[in-house]
Amino acid sequence: MMPLRYHRASDVDDAVATMTAEPNAAFLAGGTNLVDHLGLGITAPDLLVDVTRLPLGEIDRTGDGGLRIGAMARGADVAAYEDVRREYPMLARALLSAASPQLRNLATTGGNLMQRTRCGYFQDSSTPCNKREPGTGCSALGGFTRYHAILGASRHCIATNPSDMAVALAALDAVVIVVGPDGQRTIPVVDFHRLPGDEPAVDTVLGRDELIVAVELPPPVPGAVGTYRKVRDRASYAFAIVSVAAEVATAGGRVTSARIALGGVAHKPWRARAAEEFLLAGDDSGDDLLRGAAAAELAAAHPVPGNEFKVDLAARTLRATLREVLAS
Q1: In the chain, % of residues over pLDDT 90
Q2: Residue 250: CA atoms inside 13 Å, Cβ hemisphere, count?
Q3: How confident is the model at residue 27 (pLDDT cuts 50, 70, 90)?
Q4: CATH number, domain containing residue 19
Q5: Would the keyword Oxidoreductase be found if you checked this record's keyword annotation (predicted)?
């Protein structure tokens, strides 16, 4: 048995102060990722700081017409929330495509952002892994790479971020509100997760004693149509091989607004800036434009042996998703 101490936080300040005072502590929310890692021996905190009773589960409108989602809001509740379904359908679809109903009923918004990679080598403590034990090597290089990165990887790690929700949030220009010892700060979702570089063990820019308290979505883009498409090995309870969150608005046959992010292809949700710029620069919304946008984004892809197919799959999935929203 692993010896553990437990503390139920009374408020946000108590949670942050406890984490600051304890160098080997971890926040506990839904536990759908952390509890797995405890059992697998991937992590071994001395103290669990339970934040499940904090009043952070509300979903409210912001003053500018956006939406504030509390960090403790459960995935199933966010997906079912009327304003999310009506105004941010790509987020609802992303949440409903993730995990299983049981897990969506338990997993939290903040915990979803903090979940770690599902790379099989990371989760197997008998294999070398730079993300789990820095400096030991990357077993995926030369190994099974079907689910691994084709964008933004490094020689130290080619794992991918597993979150569906985070891909939609990145496309929607959402921001993460966090509280730490120095007070509150706001982090754009596109900047929240890190690429591996030389430090693949560091997943996010969040301080270890900072607590996510909410995610805020900007007001919907007038006239924009968005959706989320996920390609996976089975119809449910499977991680994305490739996914696309896309929202597009048009006027006079031209694209006037484009927000796109890819999942299953990088260490973080991949904001497709090159594809967006190509769409906005085009003089129509035909198939040639979509092919050009996909080609522009995937020009930077660097697959490894075993996942070369993902470059073409990502391009085709991006084109199909854009075709769907443009036809709506």
Answers
A1: 98
A2: 18
A3: very high
A4: 3.30.43.10
A5: yes
Determine the residue type at 77.
D
Render pLDDT for 228-287 as a digit per residue (tens, 0 to 9): 999 999 998 999 999 999 999 999 999 999 999 999 999 999 999 999 999 999 988 899
Distance in angstroms (rounded) separating the CA atoms of residues 175 and 178: 10
Q: Which domain holds residue 250?
A: 225-327
Please say whether the beta carbons of 264 and 160 come within 8 A: yes
Q: 102 phi and psi, to 5 degrees?
A: -60, -45
Q: What are residue 263's DSSP bridge partners?
A: 243
In contact, 174 and 187? CB cutoff 8 Å: no
Longest dimension (CA), the chain: 65
26 located within any domain: yes
Q: What is the pLDDT of residue 285?
A: 82
CATH of the domain at 310: 3.30.390.50
237 inside domain: yes
Q: How far apart are CA 266 and CA 153, in angstroms?
A: 7
How many domains is the chain partitioned into structurally? Answer: 2
302, exposed or middle or buried, with CB in 10 Å at 0-12, 13-18, 19+? exposed
Kind plus residue range of the DSSP H or E element containing 325? helix 309-327
In a domain, 21, yes or no: yes
